[in-house]
Design goal:
- The structure is a single chain.
- By secondary structure, the chain is α/β, with parallel strands linked by helices.
- The protein has one domain: 2-enoyl-CoA Hydratase, Chain A, domain 1 (Alpha-Beta Complex), CATH 3.90.226.10.
- The protein is built from ten helices and nine strands.
- Strands 1-2-4-6-9 form a five-stranded parallel β-sheet, with helices on both faces. It has a four-stranded mixed β-sheet with strand order 3-5-7-8.
- Strand 1, helix 1 and strand 2 form a beta-alpha-beta unit.
- The radius of gyration is 17 Å and the shape is globular.
- The structure holds ligand LGD76KDA.
- Its EC number is 5.3.3.8.
- It comes from Anser brachyrhynchus (Pink-footed goose).
- It is found in: Mitochondrion matrix.
Amino acid sequence: MKFKSPPVNSLSLDFLTEFCISLEKLENDRACRGVILTSAVPKIFSSGLDITEMCGKSTEHYAEFWRAVQEMWLRLYSSNMVTVAAVNGSSPAGGCLIALTCDYRIMAENPKFSIGLNEAQLGIVAPFWFKDTFVNVVGHRVAERSLQLGSLHSAPEAHRIGLVDELVPEEKLKDRATAVMQQWLALPDHARQLTKTMMRKAVLDRLVAHREEDVQNFISFISKESIQKSLRMYMEMLKKKKS
Ligand SMILES: CCCCCCCCCCCC/C=C/CC(=O)SCCNC(=O)CCNC(=O)[C@H](O)C(C)(C)COP(=O)(O)OP(=O)(O)OC[C@H]1O[C@@H](n2cnc3c(N)ncnc32)[C@H](O)[C@@H]1OP(=O)(O)O
């Protein structure tokens, strides 16, 4: 599955809705046992949640948007398919979450590409299920430091801390992702799927049990004037960086 929402594959409500529909179609296709996620936009895997969806909108919109973010994560984290992220560009915040949610991550070894949960740098807080997914990949200590600092890690650093499983030259990313997929698909599906469920169930159940509370937390957090101001300033900073 190739993300193609220029300029930076931001995770808008439309993007998330389409992503979930595509994933569901593949999930229901008995002939499809695995999916490789990558980007058709040069140098960017995904810029994370679309900040404009979280700025100056109604409570109803925030609720709809956040439910779509939750849905994307629940579907991908619990997928029966083998999921491989071929990270061919930068991947902050929600983009990093997508990669973390897969079974295996391969990143292009370009030191200019960065990845991480940088929410703290925007003055926002990564929700508990972003944090849980991160902890399950890199461990508690690395996740704690990285989350508090809102670190964006260069590709070599991401590999060193275990955020990505391997680095390969950009031109070899597709072939390597295919080889990894073949390796994972060589196992019987039922054994791999049951093992995946066993490893991820507690974290999935936690969001399912607190889904509506999480939506309300998001709404009250994002609606605060101080948070709206931080997000506006961040967007302005992104725009100024260009000029
Ligand atoms: C007890 C505790 C309670 C806590 C409760 C918690 C409740 C929940 C809290 C809320 C959590 C919300 C979680 C959010 C997660 C996220 O994903 S937030 C998004 C974070 N994303 C970023 O920080 C990335 C920002 N973008 C960049 O760094 C760069 O754009 C890039 C590296 C991706 C690409 O750089 P470059 O190629 O140079 O492109 P640009 O010129 O910067 O960008 C082009 C264009 O796109 C716009 N844009 C970029 N990113 C975004 C984005 N994420 N959303 C919307 N728009 C984006 C950028 O402004 C440019 O627009 P213009 O062309 O100038 O119009």
